[in-house]
Design goal:
Strand order of the largest sheet: 4-12-11-10-7-5-6
Helix content: 25-40%
Largest sheet: 7 strands, mixed
Shape: globular
Order of helices and strands: EEEHHHEHEHHEHEEEHEEEHHEEHEEEH
Number of strands: 17
């Protein structure tokens, strides 16, 4: 056998990490990296958070899995806590963000079916979206690089340009069931949807009898400084998919719904005792008094620091975008080159669409670590600028 035994997924960096400590990752060679990638916005409370470790190991010693054939008390508790903290009346637990989106899509179709409109199954989505890698969610995302080679595209998704609410309105037909949007696009390049646009989408859905679905897989669980990003706009959805941060590194997701929008679904693993122990532990921290306010404060510190670096090195950084601790460097040169320069400074970040580098530190990042990250980003940008000047001088 030649090559790796693994499927090709991401283009892997030649790094293997042995352990993590808060905002830091340590390689098998003992090198320390400042982690502003966060496992792609997953490690909401950093690495080896003591409260999460205690919750997981405590539960692991008692019970791992029983299936949803039986009552799971911690699942009921986590569901009630999410309902109390959000617009939702019902919660369905999954193992991933893509599964949470599948549940939301099914729920929207089922809602229209129960209303006597089985013909209403189509969902309007937006360019630049990323909703997962199942056959339905790659169709919803609509990006060719994810659709290529996977046979006929799943029917039922109509895509319009990012933040073009007029186009969304024109796309509504008698077959439309729902509108699906990320309040802040992550993979698409850290693009927040303006408050007014979210409000217009809510109004469109109400006027036409459609459901509004928010994908907060990446921007939820405190990432923007509110528990969920849509709270900044004062707009509530009918269905919402979450994942990533709610598990703090343990694979889990959920579909949140109003009583009316909640559908019919099933799962073997979803909501198992291990996942529920960790999810409850994450909420213990994120919902603690003052925690989200501190995220907002640290986010401002980071954003202002990044703006200063961008002003100093415009040949590298064209602009800063995003909200909370979900920030993007819009690059003036190929983002892969900038990402490599940051990695050379032992700072981990995540490339995204629209030539952007994502910075997704844990919500527990300290002021000192933000200062250290800014120092490393500045050093990386200076090295790239010096290289440009040296090339020009030849």
């Amino acid at each position: 056998m030649s090559g790796s035994a693994l499927y090709e997924t991401f283009a892997r960096a030649p790094l293997a990490f042995d352990r993590g400590e808060g905002t830091w990752l340590v390689t098998d060679k003992g090198e320390r990296y400042l982690d502003f990638a966060g496992g792609i916005a997953v490690n909401s409370l950093g690495h080896s958070h003591p409260h999460l470790v205690a919750a997981l190991t405590g539960q692991a010693a008692k019970l791992w899995h029983v299936s949803n054939l039986y009552e799971i008390p911690e699942q009921r508790r986590l569901g009630e806590r999410l309902v109390d903290a959000t617009f939702a009346d019902k919660v369905f637990f999954t193992n991933s963000g893509a599964e949470a989106l599948e549940c939301a899509i099914k729920s929207a179709r089922r809602y229209q079916f129960v209303k006597g409109h089985p013909e209403r199954f189509r969902i309007i989505t937006f360019e630049g979206a990323f909703h997962g890698r199942t056959l339905a969610t790659i169709a919803a995302g609509g990006q060719y690089k994810y659709l290529e080679g996977f046979g006929p595209k799943v029917e039922g998704f109509d895509q319009v340009a990012f933040d073009d609410i007029d186009a969304a309105e024109k796309a509504i037909t008698p077959e439309t069931a729902a509108i699906l949007i990320e309040p802040v696009q992550g993979e698409g390049g850290i693009r927040p949807v303006p408050t007014q646009s979210l409000k217009r989408l809510r109004q469109l859905c109400d006027r036409h009898g459609l459901l509004l679905i928010f994908d907060e897989v990446q921007c939820g669980i405190g990432r923007t400084g509110k528990l969920f990003a849509h709270e900044w706009a004062g707009v509530t959805p009918d269905l919402m998919a979450i994942a990533k941060g709610i598990g703090g590194g343990f694979p889990m997701g959920a579909c949140l719904a109003t009583d009316e929008a909640a559908g019919v679904h099933g799962t073997t693993f979803g909501g198992n005792p291990l996942a529920m122990a960790v999810g409850n532990a994450v909420l213990d921290v994120v919902l603690a008094d003052g925690f989200l306010e501190d995220v907002q404060r640290k986010a401002l510190l980071l954003k202002q620091g990044l703006a200063a670096v961008g002003d100093e090195f415009p040949e590298v950084i064209e602009g800063i975008r995003g909200t909370g601790l979900m920030l993007g460097l819009k690059c003036a040169m190929p983002n892969a080159k900038v990402n490599m320069a940051l990695r050379d400074q032992h700072l981990l970040a995540v490339p995204a669409g629209d030539n952007v580098i994502r910075l997704l530190p844990p919500l527990t990042v300290t002021d000192e670590e933000i200062g250290e990250a800014l120092k490393r980003i500045r050093s990386g940008a200076k090295g790239l600028t010096d290289a440009i000047a040296a090339e020009a001088a030849k």
